[in-house]
Structures are given as C-alpha cells and as structure tokens.
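Course exercise 7: structure representation. Students receive a sequence record and must write out the corresponding structure in token form. The form below is the worked example handed out in class, using FHA domain-containing protein (204 residues). Read each field label carefully; the graders check that inputs and outputs are placed in the correct fields and that the protein name is recorded exactly as given.

STUDENT ID: A-19
EXERCISE PROTEIN: FHA domain-containing protein
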Amino acid sequence: MSELIVMLDKQILKRIAVKKTSIVFGRHSKCDIALPDRTISNNHARITVVRDDCFLEDLQSTNGTYVNQQQIDRHLLMDGDIIALGKYQVVFRSVQGIAIQIKRLSIHPKLMDASYNAWLQVMDGSKSGYIIPLKAERLVLGNQTTGQVLIECSTQGQYIMSATGTMNNHRTRTLVAGDTLKVEETTFQFCLKEQDADINTVST
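STUDENT ANSWER:
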C-alpha cells in the first residue's frame, strides 16, 4: 500500500495510507488533506488511484503543484517523489514491485519512436526484449525498501544513475551505452541511439 508523508520545515506532521481512490489536497477544511497555507488554493491538487498507479493532478491552482521541483499538470507518482504544495512537502512512498513497474513503463520494441535518444532494454523475465524509453527528466525503478535506481538526464544530455541498496550504499555515475543495471531480480541494459556498447554492471 502507498503512503503519503506530510512534512513542514523538515518535520513529519502525519503519515496517511492511500486507501481511497481519490485524495484532494487544499486549504479548505473539507479537503482530504487540509493544508492551512494562504498560498495553497482551496482545492489545490488531487491524487487519483488507478489500479496499481497513483496519478497527481493540479486542480488549476493559483501557485501550481510541483514534484521534485518541477511544475506539473499531471504526474505518475513514483516511490520517493516529493510533492511541494505551498510551504508543505508531501513524500510519496510505495512498495510497488519491479514487475508492476515494468508492466506499466515498458513497450514492445516495434513501438519504439525514432525520437527516443535513450532507453532501457529488459534483459530477462516475461518482458525480456521490451524497452523502457527514457523520455522524462528522471526515471525511478524499484523502491526504497528493496533498493532503488534513479536515472536523470543532465542539462548536457548525459544520463546520471544513482543506486541505493538495502545496505544504504549509494553510487552515482554517468551511464554509457551497454551498461547493465539490476533492480531486484531484473537486469536492464542502457541503450543510446547510434552508440557502441561498453559493458559495466551495477546491481541493487
């Protein structure tokens, strides 16, 4: 089950289990999560649960909704995402397994778009051969409980991977074509368009 951790000035105010299919944030006292801050709209943002996924949507708020310091209209929440609403921060936590993430994120290679500059190829399991396009500025695989891989695209167009394991070891490096990474029991290969491969392996 997913959880929301509401924070103010780095202090945890409450932990809320995501049990409903719709959760509304706002200044109004009737909101599911009321946040008394004049910079927050009466009905500011909403989380909608669709099967195993949680989508965050801005409700045309005055000052916007931010996830990981990026303003969003609609966003698929991943474990560890930090939602900013006025002076409050809400951390999204999920123990969603890698199999569900692959099912949601991967596509058949025949559906690959020519605009994709980088992607991860699933190397084993039922989705072996499928790809996960790296279209957004960041991709998170796994969760903070079992180990997590974060891939971010830098302003120079490089893909930076940070890996955290169950022993809290933290590694950061720039990915090159052919690198492999392991999340739980699944191996992925990093691919760049028209690049030759150099093989390295990182696991969590």
